[in-house]
Amino acid sequence: MQVIKTNILTPLSVNNIILKKNVFVTISRGLISNISNKHSSAYLDCSDLVCIPGLIDAHVHLSQLYARGKHSTNLLSWLNNHIFSEELKSADESFAKQIARDFFNELLAAGTTTAVVYISPFKTACDLAFEVAESIGNRVIMGKTMMDRGEPGFLRENSDRSYQESVELFKKWNQATSRMEYIFSPRFALSCSPRLMRRTGEFASANDAYIQTHLSENPEEILQVRRLYPQAKNYTHVYEKHKLLTPKTLLGHAIHVNDDELTMIKNSGAGIVHCPDSNFFLKSGRFPLSEIKQKGIRYGLGSDVGAGTSLSMLHVMKMSNYIQNEIIVTPAEAFYNATLGNAELLQKNETLGSIETGKEADLTFLKIKTSSNHTKEGILSALLYLGEDIKVKKVYISGQLVFKPR
Ligand code: GUN
Ligand code: ZN
Fold this sequence. Notes:
By secondary structure, the protein is α/β, with parallel strands linked by helices. Helices cover 36% and strands 26% of the residues. It has helices spanning 75-88, 93-109, 123-136, 159-173, 194-206, 219-228, 235-241, 259-268, 276-281, 289-295, 313-322, 331-345, 376-385, and strands at 2-13, 16-28, 31-36, 44-53, 55-61, 112-119, 139-146, 180-186, 210-215, 249-253, 271-274, 299-301, 363-367, 391-397, 400-403. The strands form two sheets. The protein has an eight-stranded parallel β-sheet. Strands 3-2-1-4-13-14-15 form a seven-stranded mixed β-sheet. 51% of the residues are buried.
């Protein structure tokens, strides 16, 4: 058992964020077992810090960590000019191990305790990523990118092998520890055959497994999907036809989607991951936030590194505010989205996303400048707009200290 004296800022629901100053958080067997105003025996004093729920990144590419900030004019030329060749580097085991170490340490340094991750299309790189995550302590939902069609030839997988390896990885790693799950990761419609998508969707549904893919990010991408699937009503329909839309599917981006597509997504129960920094970087367009809210579709936030330039979910929160013109994303809403909202997107809000008794002790401790106004509104506003000035001082996952700056 450990007790920490601190100031907690946590959502309890989308409309209810609370700040409790100078409280004692008790952690037993990895869970938050008590939050009280008084405590008589020994405790760790973090009363100069603000404790928030560990941040959650719902869409990030491990193998693109070193390829951030590589200029291009749109999605497809960026993939072709910078990303596919970068992902090929992870075929080398020592490279794959090193990038995984850097990735998981940098996630923690950014205050992120849970991440939903695409690994390069190499089985060994995926095994190594799970091993490294386990040794460092990150909570992860990860899968090997699947791609059996289209360019580039040097990354293209044999279709049966892509499927078999993903199933093997699922069997080996899904819930292998309490901190890890597998997610089937067909890259997008342009790099997956109809058969691979269908088999993957059917297996994932039968096994209650997560699926992630990219949807309608860029106009040229959508045009190419239309050419490949002339009978499909739209891009979303391609995924629906091939069984990829399930209640455990996470659709990255979903920018250029019409009302029919949103209805299809809503009816399937799938969720959407909004990646605003990436959308700015690749000039992909503006996320249709009000339409998605109106439909009642579950959505969350992702960094989408390497099209996203930063692993910081505070930065992603800021971009989610900046990218909207007509509607205002409030500090409270952005904070909710990166914590409890993302936990709901992952259907993990019973255990993650807020600081409440009975939940996992996934906690991020922040030093916020003393010049900031330390009211609830002041802290929320600083989290949204001043992430660069905020230092991550400690990170716990299931009550285990996993990060402390040197
Ligand atoms: N669409 C297909 N692959 C990718 C990728 O790696 N990043 C982004 N942003 N979009 C994609
Ligand atoms: Zn992505």
